[in-house]
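Below is how a single chain appears once it has passed through the pipeline. First comes the sequence as given, then the structure the pipeline wrote out for it. We keep one example in the README because the format questions we get most often are answered faster by looking than by reading.
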Amino acid sequence: MSMERTVKVTGKAKVAVRPDRIRLMITAKGEKASYEEALGQSAEQAKLLWECFEGLGFQRSDLKTVSFQVHTKYENCKEKGNWKQKFVGYEFRQELKIEFGVDNQMLAKILHGLAHSTVEPEFHIVYTVKDEESVKNHLLGKAVEDAKTKAQVLTEAAGVKLGKMISIDYSWEEMEIVSRPRGRMMALAASGDAVADTCEMDVEPEDISVSDHVTVVWGIE
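Resulting structure:
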């Protein structure tokens, strides 16, 4: 029995994408003696954050809740020579996000508002793109083209002809199309005072580099 002759090639692609969206991740947290107090405090923090963004022209629905947790907190203490865990209250943590077009003036206003909020939230900035699917599809197409080009080079060098495509193997892994600012950008964001007067930030986000691969099998004639 003759085995079908094939050529298996992995095509790779890499593209640089200019970000057109800012994703701001915000974390508010705290600790209270009772479960009810923890829920109440978290609700109050969310309300203050909503009001902050509404004051900047956003809709309440623009600020999305990513996660919310309340759990018990214990501390180790020593009683009569033995270490024990002592219940001290409830910790709460809620993560929210908001996205908007790349706008340095708006970003500066938001960071100033958060830095001076009584909530004292933690936050970090991520640059991304609005149409992620378009970027992924373009990248995948280039990977298939690369695989075909390599297969044609191999078969021509071997003195055979590239036949029909037999299979395509793609991992479908979740791809994150983001870039995270570092250095001076994050120092300005953390201080808040740096943008308090002018509400301007001279920031040019770097392009987002993304890559992917696909494995294709062709028959050989």
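Residues 132-158 form the longest helix (27 residues).

See the next section for the split statistics.
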